[in-house]
Amino acid sequence: MSILSFPHRGPWGDSKWRGNCSGYVYQDLFKRLKPNFYIDPMVGSGTSTDVANEMGIEAIGLDLHSGFNILRDSILERAGKQADLVVSHPPYGNQVVYSGEVWGEPHPDDLSRCKDDDEFHQKLQQALLNQREATKDGGVYGTLIGDYRKNGRYTSYQAEAIARMPSAELMAVIIKQQHNVMSNAKQYPGLVMPRIMHEYLLLWKRKQTPTIFLLRDLATEQANRLRGTWRAIIRNVVIALGGSASLKTLYEKIAAHCDERVKANPNWQAKVRQILNSTGDYVSVSRGVWALA
User: Fold this and answer.
1) Which residue has the higher pLDDT, 210 or 142?
2) What does the alpha-carbon distance between residue 158 and residue 92 come to, in Å, rounded to a whole number?
3) pLDDT for residue 227
4) Domains of the chain, CATH where assigned
5) How far apart are CA 130 and CA 43, in angstroms?
6) Measured in whole angstroms, how far is the alpha carbon of residue 23 from the centre of its chain?
C-alpha cells in the first residue's frame, strides 16, 4: 500500500514532543526495507531509533539539539560507516519552532527558523544530499515531510524536495494520513479547501554515482526545467498577442508579467531570443517579428 494510516503513535519516543511521528510508520518501513543499519539525522525524541532497537536493528540518532548540525557536519563521519537506510523527519518550515521554544537557545541552522520558503528548500536539499552521502550504494535515503498553507498560500515542500533531488533515484512517494494534529482545534475564517491531513514519506535509492557527477546531473535537470519554464512563458505571451509579435512587444509583455527576480537577471532578453531562434516553435515572419510555427 502506498497510503499509511496509524491513529496511534505507540510507546516509542516522547509523546510530548511536538510533531512526533507515529512509531508504526518506522516499524512498517523497517519491515519493508529490512535495514541492518539505520541512521536518523533529525531524531527528535528518538521514536525511530526506539523502534529500530526493539526490532534488533543497529541504529544511530543524531539531532541539532544534541550537538549535530546536518548543514555543517557530515553524517557519514559521525556514524563511521554508511547505512542501509537514512531517513529524516525535519520541521515543516516554521509551523513548529524548535530551538528557543522546544529546547535550548535559538539556533541559526535550525530548519524551523528559516526566514522564508526559499531558505528552507535550499537547506532541506543540503540535508538530503548529506543523507545520500551516508547511504550505501543500493541503500535508501529519504524524508517525512508535509505541506503547508499560510495566509491562503499553499506550499508543497514535498514537490520541491523531489524537484531538487536526482529524479533517477526517486524510489517511492508514500502518503501518510495525519491524526491528532493540534490545528484541528483551530478555526480558520474563510477556509474553503480541506485542511491538510496528510504527509509524504519520500524515498530515494542511491545509485553508484559520485557526488560530483550527481551535482552535474542535478544542474542539468534544473537548467532543463528552467528552459521549459521560459518556453511556456514565451508561448503564453505570443498566444495572448494573437500568435505573432515584434521582439520589442514581447520584451514589454514579458517584463510586465514576470516578477522582479526575472527582470533582475541581465540576460533574460538573451534567453528569449535564444528560445525564439533555437526551439523550432517560432518562425521569423519579418525583421524583428516572430510567430508560432
Assistant:
1) 142
2) 10
3) 65
4) 3-209 (3.40.50.150), 229-292 (no CATH)
5) 15
6) 22
